[in-house]
């Protein structure tokens, strides 16, 4: 009986030690850049300076299934570079992959993706890239294929001493963590757009709260991304627009950081655009990016 008790105590110590060793990200402010041309105006450059933005997750291209499914996944909507980021701001090539691309394994996809990013960097004289991010709204059906794909991407990245990160949706917090260096928790698009008369589908605290029980125990280092964009589309023949109120974003931020304090250290907003900058006052951005 004594041996069993000692064994249980040792096991609890190992579990506690493992939890306490969870790495967290260094402090830093970031933005997503989700346009098809990299070109910054004076307002956007001033925003980067004012809020000490040191990282830009820049969408390079999407990966979608070809209309001829036999051809498999293909790149789409590739960005063009007519400008450069300010000195000292890190650029992170980011690729969005549609979930249906992960319904089955595609041999060589990871290698093609990384090579295409590296070729784009070389063509556009982009140096110093230390990380690649993959964005995918994976589900229980596609999770294992996606994780296998991420493992292959990591192998390719390691050849060039480059990290690999991925986005994490709130519903994915209940799943096993993906095999990457860290994740960016996307705290937006939380609601059902078909129920736009009841709640804001971009962000509503009531839609976020049910997922927070999985947040503190999630083993992957995380940054937190919040929406500053206006969502617009036609639903059932009705044109609908949503601009999330600043107070709602800050209420969600407070709730998220209450569950996992370290998420105050690394903040991302989606996405960098003059209109989004001017939608909120500077004090709001100071609060959002405050550590």
Can you give me a brief rundown of this structure?
The protein is an alpha/beta fold. The protein contains 8 helices and 13 strands. The model is unreliable at 4-20 (pLDDT under 50).
What features would you highlight for this structure?
alpha/beta; about 30% helix; about 25% strand; about 290 residues
Distance between the termini: 49 Å
Structural class: alpha/beta
Widest β-sheet, arrangement of strands: 1-3-6-7-8-9-10-13
**Uncertain segments:** 4-20
The count of DSSP E runs of length 2 or more, i.e. the number of strands, is 13
Mind explaining what this structure looks like?
With 291 residues, this protein is an alpha/beta fold. It has eight helices and 13 strands. An eight-stranded parallel β-barrel has the order 1-3-6-7-8-9-10-13. It has a two-stranded parallel sheet with strand order 2-5. Helix 3 (109-123) crosses helix 4. It is globular.
